Amino acid sequence: MTNLKSILINKISCKSIWFMRQAGRYLPEFREIRKKNKDFIKLCLNSNLSSEITLQPIKRYNLDSAIIFSDILMTPYALGQNITFIKEEGPRLSEFKIEVLTKNNKEKFTQKLKSVYEAIKITRKRLEKNKSLICFIGAPWTLLVYMLGLKTEDNKLNLDKYKKHRTQINQILVELNDYLCVHIKNQINAGADVVQIFDSWAGLIPIKDIKDFCYIPNKRIIDFCKSKEIATICFPKGLKDNYKDFNDFVKPDGINLDSELDPIWARSKLKDVVLQGGPDPKILFKTDKEILEVATKYIKTFKDIPYVFNLGHGLLPETDPDKVKMLVNFYRNYNE
Ligand code: CP3
Predict the structure, then answer these.
(1) Ligand 1 site, residue 73, Cβ cutoff 6 A
(2) What is the pLDDT of residue 336?
(3) What does the pLDDT read at residue 87?
(4) Alpha-carbon span 181 to 270, nearest angstrom
């Protein structure tokens, strides 16, 4: 079997499957641990539990890659911003102060995340050699959305706040970049071999700012990774047709499709990159026949080009674990 890192670096066509949020609330074995660990950040900082949770979906489905159990918000946490997770509402961060970036230092930052790196070390030892261990970061813009609270409750851009902070945004994105590169380097040194960069809120950026706030910050990170020979996957969710410009400009090794993109469009426009994902996670709420129809459409469209099976976003908490099993079995046994 070829692992994810080799697929990304050598751009080879080879079966490979994993899911975003493959370790999470849809799994009863995760909920069991979560029940006893009410503080989510503390759970992410518990190396043994984080490692155990990372391996839960590997044990259940024998997926090809593991993704370390952590969160993109561990970066603002390590910078000293206070984070709480409110049930049914999501994360809430304390008021942003520029000093968390300007009066901070890389050693302190690394120190606050050392149990994440320890979790990666433990997991790498426990994980089969031929499986990749994926680490991740939030892209600068997506982290900034949380750090400045730039989203409204219905997930739109809060334009008033955006305009208010507009002149400061570039500086924050640049300062964040250095910490994110440290976080990537530490995770790779601990034993991860692929990094995925989640720009989950790229779709909120007004078109005139997309290059400055999305393409350039992602490219800076990809260029850093290239200089260190680290395999990369970008996920600029919500960019629609601009996925093409993003890919041409940033040139990551892999790119995750969101479910809005037409797979045929993606195949013809996104070049020199390994494609990943695409299907709407909500298809798993449908009948087996409907699930397999959608899966077949993606598999057939990307026949003969490097494609990693995944979804267009993370698995949802309401997902039936047996449907995931059915989909994985179908993919494994699919022959053309
Ligand atoms: O299995 C994996 O994919 C690895 C673990 C992982 C988590 N979060 C665990 C988690 C990863 C890769 C993430 C990424 C993440 N976190 C993103 C980017 C991907 C995306 O979903 O767009 C974002 C935006 C976050 C921020 C975040 N973390 C939010 C908005 C929330 C609350 C809402 C939600 O989706 O659950 C979290 C909490 C979180 N992160 C949970 C998990 C398993 C749920 C925590 C719980 O048990 O209550």
Answers:
(1) yes
(2) 76
(3) 80
(4) 26
Ligand 1, closest atom to CA 24? Answer: 43
pLDDT in tens, 257-308: 999 999 999 999 999 999 999 999 999 999 999 999 999 999 999 999 999 9
Please state, as a whole number, how many other Cβ atoms lie within 10 Å of the Cβ of residue 146. 23
Structure tokens at 54: 């990372």
Contact between 112 and 173 under an 8 Å Cβ cutoff? The reply is no
Please tell me the distance from the alpha carbon of residue 2 to that of residue 15, in angstroms, as a whole number.
8
Reported as a single tens digit per residue, the pLDDT across 31-43 is 999 999 999 999 9
Phi first, then psi, for residue 138 (nearest 5°) are -85, 140
- What is the residue extent of each domain of the chain? 4-333
Rounded CA gap, 315 and 21, in Å? 5
Q: Which of 52, 71, 198, 204 to mutate to test the pocket of ligand 1 (most atoms within 8 A of CB)?
A: 71
pTM (2 d.p.): 0.97
Whether the CA torsion 145, 33, 196, 294 is positive or negative: it is negative
Task: Return the bridge partners of 233, or none.
Answer: 196, 254
Q: What is the CATH number of domain 4-333?
A: 3.20.20.210
Residue 188 burial (10 A CB sphere; 0-12, 13-18, 19+): buried
pLDDT(312) > 80:
yes
